[in-house]
């Protein structure tokens, strides 16, 4: 089932290019330039999805960058995304053709949008452009009239001239097993976390105390977070991109097999049935070891991770560690 849905998404680029009434322009941007462009959008809807989880958040982008850079999720204001440069293929701007009339949408709802694809043509991230100013900016970039200048947050002394050794990975010498939370997320971005998951399953990552848990308890975990008002960071993975949201869990609703969760300013929809297993993994955080609840599909790719990233209150961190430590084994 996962393979069928991935194939459907990989066909989306060809579908867009051949659709009547829709003008598609390619953006000649690197992943870093794309990361510099997104925060310039004033009011957009950022969407990232895999076959098990979807995340959507409106407003200005709070954070957009690539592996190796600093990363901040904040708490409710705007989407935060992170790209794996080698996994970003092309980005396009789609808009209804003038001959298609003045409707806001064409076909399946694809109106004015910016969409990022992998080199294989899989859809990785979509930005719906609702504001006229945002649409004009995207069109200027597509016509080559404006090129965003990425300002890396990596100290220049860590990089060589050019891009040959960039992005710099400060954990490269010790490996991800001894690195912090952000290094874990970046490792999962390289191949969906498949190699990392395999290593954890064979006894690797001992410092992080990986533990398999019962995947069916996730709805109860989310409802507990909502009831207690504990802050959490939710990171959703697609091919080469991660979109994260942080803050309180404002609401949890079940609709059949799917779960709808409001985290910070984002809406997340999960299909727990599509998750084959789940792990609790600890990594270095602000308050010391900090757990992450990671859900994986049948291919061993991480579809979503829940953790506490960045600054949280000490009591909130202790409550999170107690909760994750008490989850039943698989």
UniProtKB/TrEMBL annotation:
Q: Which residues form the Haemin-degrading HemS/ChuX domain?
A: 209-326
| Gene3D superfamilies assigned to the protein according to its UniProt record, in alphabetical order | HemS/ChuS/ChuX like domains
Coiled-coil residue spans:
none
InterPro entries according to UniProt: Heme_Transport_Util_sf, HemS/ChuX_dom
What is any Pfam family matched here? Answer: HemS
In Swiss-Prot or TrEMBL terms, this protein is called Haemin-degrading HemS/ChuX domain-containing protein
Mind giving the lineage of the organism this protein is from?
Bacteria, Bacillati, Actinomycetota, Actinomycetes, Micrococcales
